[in-house]
Design goal:
This protein is mostly helical. It folds into three domains: 17-62, no CATH class; 95-232 and 266-287 and 318-411, no CATH class; 233-265 and 288-317, no CATH class. It contains 15 helices and seven strands. It has helices at 18-26, 67-86, 107-123, 129-151, 175-192, 202-229, 272-280, 325-347, 351-374, 386-409, 417-424, 426-434, 437-442, 454-466, 469-493, and strands at residues 3-6, 231-232, 235-240, 248-250, 253-258, 262-263, 496-499. The strands form three sheets. It has a three-stranded antiparallel β-sheet with strand order 3-5-4, with no helix packed on it. Strands 1-7 form a two-stranded antiparallel sheet. Residues 65-188 form the Heparan-alpha-glucosaminide N-acetyltransferase catalytic domain. The chain crosses the membrane at residues 99-124, 136-155, 175-193, 213-232, 325-348, 355-376, 388-407, 427-447, 471-491. Keywords: Membrane, Transmembrane, Transmembrane helix. This is Heparan-alpha-glucosaminide N-acetyltransferase catalytic domain-containing protein.
């Protein structure tokens, strides 16, 4: 984290400062109400006479935040904690081994979708493109290298008592790095490609943002072209001899050969996504415990991790990065989808019209997903296929539409307040909880032996009470989520927000 912001935070307010915009209009400046949430009668009250006395509280109106976006972001972080910490006990809420989707597979796209919505709300206020570009570039760099620090192998996770990483094997890509890539490309398109055309009809909306749709089309064509057209040759990887069944030994390691020689193959060993990562990053710098180790080919406990079955293929031990280069190209399109949904907030003033447009668009995205799947491109998170992108973007949009209607339209906020708090400090919660920095620090305090630390004892206590290891684990995760919601609420009450 680069800084701690107290009281004020550079977030995505739904509208600009009410009083400042009204004053600007009266001073002869252009007055815009894009994204205004207030009724017409409340937008600019008449200027009081100079002799009148006005209570200070009436001179200003608070920024009206898009609370539903905070709730959506908080729910996404909560689901990530649930999936990461309870997915091992409940494979049904873990990621799909290769093809198909589970609830866990909607988490990463939801992050990207919310980033796109936020960019639409924030970048519309930018007045100096050069300065804004510089800020976006610096934030991208900081976010990327924070991801390398957290997911590059330096921290070894809970129940490990060491830290540090061999630079020769550092993992370069991960969740935050993917978000950084999407954020940069989408923010640049919003700053430099959105035209100055006023929006007063669906056609004018398309004219204003048509360049962004060209970028989306180009990214999609590049992805599909490489995924289906790139030739994947035979390849080799190094595996510890204790895990290998194979051939050529070399100082305690063996060389495994994977036979491909194919185009357009979407299976774990021979797809273009993995080939590009091995070619440009090197297999030592990829994720070493890929999700396809949970497939039936690679685990007798599928869909969970487990021992290799008899006569398992050699590629079961090969690395694969689920946040690789080519898959991040299509992941960026999810961020663009969120951007366009954010544009609806900016240009449409009616709550019901916003919800209607979002709902229709969401259903269309889901229908496109199944249409593409029928044509032969299955749902796959590791590959981030086009069908998966459509489905998860549509699902994220449906969820945001529902939350927006309940929270920002009907003002039903008490049931979602915990997640709103978490969403307002999503970055610090992700770093400390989802990346396990907080439990790693806590387990350093133990009684007589390292396994008797506060984290393990708390989880074991709940497992004992519930007479079930997996249900005790689930209860522990729910307590963990509640803890971070309340911690975020405390930070909000103190006006403290963490940002890059």
């Amino acid at each position: 984290m680069d800084s701690i912001v107290v009281v004020s935070e550079e977030r995505a307010p739904l509208i600009d400062s009410y009083s400042q915009r009204c004053d600007g209009a009266r001073g002869g400046g252009a007055l815009e109400f894009d994204g205004e949430m207030l009724p017409e009668s409340q937008r600019c009250p008449p200027t009081p006479p100079a002799t009148s006395v006005v209570h200070p509280a009436r001179l200003s109106q608070p920024n009206q935040r898009l609370a539903s976006l905070d709730v959506f972001r908080g729910l996404t972080v909560a689901f990530m904690i649930l999936v990461d910490d309870a997915g091992g006990a409940f494979p049904a809420i873990n990621h799909a081994p290769w093809f198909g989707v589970t609830i866990a597979d909607f988490v990463m796209p939801s992050f990207l979708f919310s980033v796109g919505v936020s960019i639409a709300l924030v970048c519309r206020k930018a007045t100096n493109k050069i300065v804004t570009t510089r800020k976006v570039l610096m934030r991208t760099i900081k976010l990327f290298f924070l991801g390398v620090l957290l997911q590059g192998g330096y921290f070894h996770g809970r129940n490990h008592w060491t830290y540090g990483v061999d630079i020769d094997r550092i993992r370069w890509l991960g969740v935050l790095q993917r978000i950084a890539i999407g954020y940069f490309l989408v923010a640049m398109s919003e700053i430099w490609l959105a035209s100055n055309h006023p929006v007063h009809s669906p056609m004018s909306f398309m004219r204003k943002y048509y360049s962004q749709w060209v970028v989306v089309s180009l990214l999609s064509v590049i992805y599909i072209g490489l995924l289906l057209g790139l030739y994947v040759p035979n390849w080799e990887f190094e595996v510890s001899s204790s895990n290998s069944t194979l051939s050529m030994s070399n100082f305690g390691h063996q060389i495994e050969t994977v036979y491909c020689g194919l185009r357009g193959n979407l299976s774990p060993p021979c797809n273009a996504v993995g080939f590009i990562d091995r070619l440009l990053l090197g297999e030592k710098h990829l994720y070493q415990n890929p999700v396809y180790k949970r497939t039936k080919d690679c685990s007798i406990n599928s869909p969970d991790y487990g021992p290799l079955p008899p006569n398992s293929p050699g590629w079961c031990l090969a690395p694969f990065d689920p946040e690789g280069i080519l898959s991040s190209v299509m992941a960026t399109v999810t961020c663009f989808a969120g951007l366009q949904f954010g544009h609806v907030i900016v240009h449409i003033k009616s709550h019901l019209k916003r919800v209607l447009i979002w709902s229709v668009s969401s259903v269309m995205l889901v229908l496109f997903a199944y249409f593409v799947a029928i044509l032969g491109m299955p749902l796959s998170k590791p590959l981030y296929t086009l069908s998966y992108m459509f489905l998860t973007a549509g699902g994220s949009a449906i969820a945001l539409s529902l939350i927006y209607y309940l929270v920002d339209v009907k003002h039903i906020r008490k049931p979602t307040l915990l997640f709103q708090w978490m969403g307002m400090n999503a970055l610090i919660v992700y770093v400390l909880a989802a990346c396990e920095l907080f439990p790693i620090a806590l387990q350093g305090f133990y009684w007589k032996k390292p396994s008797n630390n506060l984290v393990n004892l708390s989880e074991s206590f709940l497992q004992t009470i519930l007479h079930s290891k997996k249900w005790g684990t689930l209860a522990f995760v729910f307590v963990e989520i509640l803890f971070w919601c309340l911690a975020s609420g405390f930070l909000d009450m103190k006006g403290i927000y963490f940002k890059l």
